[in-house]
Amino acid sequence: MTDASVGWTDERVEVLKKLWSDGLSASQIAAEIGGVTRNAVIGKVHRLGLSGRSKSAPVAAAAPRPRKPSAPRPAGPVAEEDEDEIILRPEPIAPAVEAAAAPVYMDNRVVEIALPLSQRVTIMDLRESMCRWPIGDPTNPEFRFCGGRSITGLPYCPEHAQVAYQPAADRRRDRKLMRA
DNA sequence: CCCTGATTCGC
DNA sequence: GCGAATCAGG
Q1: Which pTM was predicted?
Q2: Protein footprint on strand B: which nucleotides are under 7 Å from a CB?
Q3: Record's Gene3D superfamilies (predicted)?
Q4: What are φ and ψ of residue A144, in 5° steps?
Q5: Residue A88: inside a domain, yes or no?
Q6: Chain C bases closer than 7 A to any CB of the protein
């Protein structure tokens, strides 16, 4: 859809400004807009001249910069590791609107018992290491995310990861309830 | 250990 | 201009 190299488009910059001024952390913003790391967000924020936001004493530009002249730059190839333990499906069983739109009274009770409602979080509170399993309709104000502790490297908590990445063999018993 | 922003500097 | 690496701190 968007260009291959999605840089800082005006739209993305606007979102960045909004969220930043809104008090979100760099990592939160990075997770929200996606495609960028928190470092990228911070870097952009500074370049835009934003920063400090609204802190009482900005501590001035204290912090002398005694960085190290000789930077230890690896510049070497990074080893990659294989991972074929779990069967990841291209698309998690549609966790989005479809599955989550309706109250999760499906066969996967795992989803419900996973966390108390009081623990759901909004996009504002969603953080990098929080489960991004959608709860409800994204267009409604009631929309929330699971918010549980996500598995490192995955966007979901252990419970939702199981639901999302079911081995092709094991799933299929949920189908019966889907037809409506 | 989790996280935060700040800064430098190679690209 | 960009952002990874790094730093400094909570």
Answers
A1: 0.46
A2: 2-11
A3: Homeodomain-like
A4: -140, 170
A5: no
A6: 1-9
